[in-house]
Protein: Dolichyl-diphosphooligosaccharide--protein glycosyltransferase subunit 1
Organism: Tribolium castaneum
Amino acid sequence: MYKFVVLFICMCSVISAEQINQLVINKNVERTIDLTSQLVKITATITLENTGKDTVRNYLIVLEPDTVGNLSYISVKDSLKEDLKLTPSKVEKHEKDVYSVQLKQPLATGRTAGIILEAVFTKGLVPYPNSITQKEKQLVRYFGNHYFYTPYATSKQTTSVTLSSRSVESYTKLKPVSQSDSTLTYGPYSDIPAFSQDRMIVHYENNSPFLTVTRLERLIEISHWGNIAVEENIEILHTGAKLKGPFSRYDYQRDTGSSHHSIKSYRTILPAAAYNIYYRDSNGNISTSQVRTRKDWIELELRPRFPLFGGWRSSYTLGYSVPSYQYLYRKSSTEYVLNMRLLDHVFDDMHVEELETKVVLPVGVTEVQIKTPYEVQRLPDGVTFKYLDQFGRSVIKLRKTNLVEQHIQDLEIVYHWRSGLLLLEPVLLALALYVLFIIVIIYVRLDFSIHKPEHAKKE
């Protein structure tokens, strides 16, 4: 029977139901909505107060119904910016996107506490119009809520909306509201009831790269000879406004402006110790890429064979090697620990729709344990054969959807392996060569001819 163990740090698989404590209020909420990229990043600094007689240990977070399915990442910290435990929960009429935050210290009556909520949403910006010509600017619309959506009453609230451009077509005007350069400020609003909603619409220019990784296959191959090989097969799609009309290479080369909705190139970050870097597509190696060595990383500029407009897609393979001593540690004579990223940087403000990470373990590993930084789907293990392998190597397969940069965290794999297996393939190769030489020596000394040579008859 197929068995596996996956440990989760941030989430709990058991979803409990909780009651809303009406005696907890949001004394002040300062919310920031970042719309400078293709992602919607919301940060809320909340000052909560316990007006009841009982001690409060948990705080509920309920996301808006319109955002169900778009949430990619969520975290909560206290005023000292230490992570707080976040557990999926349920409340009445809200069964999805409800989380219970466990406070570091129970909140006594009459006391206040501060927490910081960070959430990242994908597919929250809609191109409008949805198709444009080559020379037009890209306009998008954001649909949100003027109020901070919460199951508690809010005494005071302010919202700042940060845009990528000062060019704003229109925005809803729930007074008081003001615009300063590329920032919209809503509020302060006072005495807001729980679960308040009022539609916010912002229509503005956003030419940042709307580049989505539709599928990423990440292969990590471990070798105890001192090398770890990494290869990524990436499929990308421009999810911005689609190109309307023909494409003119002449006009495109004449357009030297940096603010353009098409994508000529983008940067990716590799480990500082990476070497043997290659970048190719189905046609072969792409020589227009550039590698720049920084102090703590390697910057690789990737330039597709053709610029990407809305609706256009491309695919490529990126590979490199890193020394194993930086990621593979030996705990005992037979126990090893691998700490390596489950997902690595592809481009800034990336959105990965589907990730499949495969880890190829050495021959003969046993007692494999996996610890992931967040909840993932464990696929059935596979088996692969490499050069001179007599026995198959185990392949661990992990799958995750809807990822962003905050998901770039380490995967930990613990396994047992005997170092004597390192000599198995060289010994087998030496034996094979030895047997081959013996056969050749015997063969050249045998005489299979029917007639004896004439010089032998004369004698």
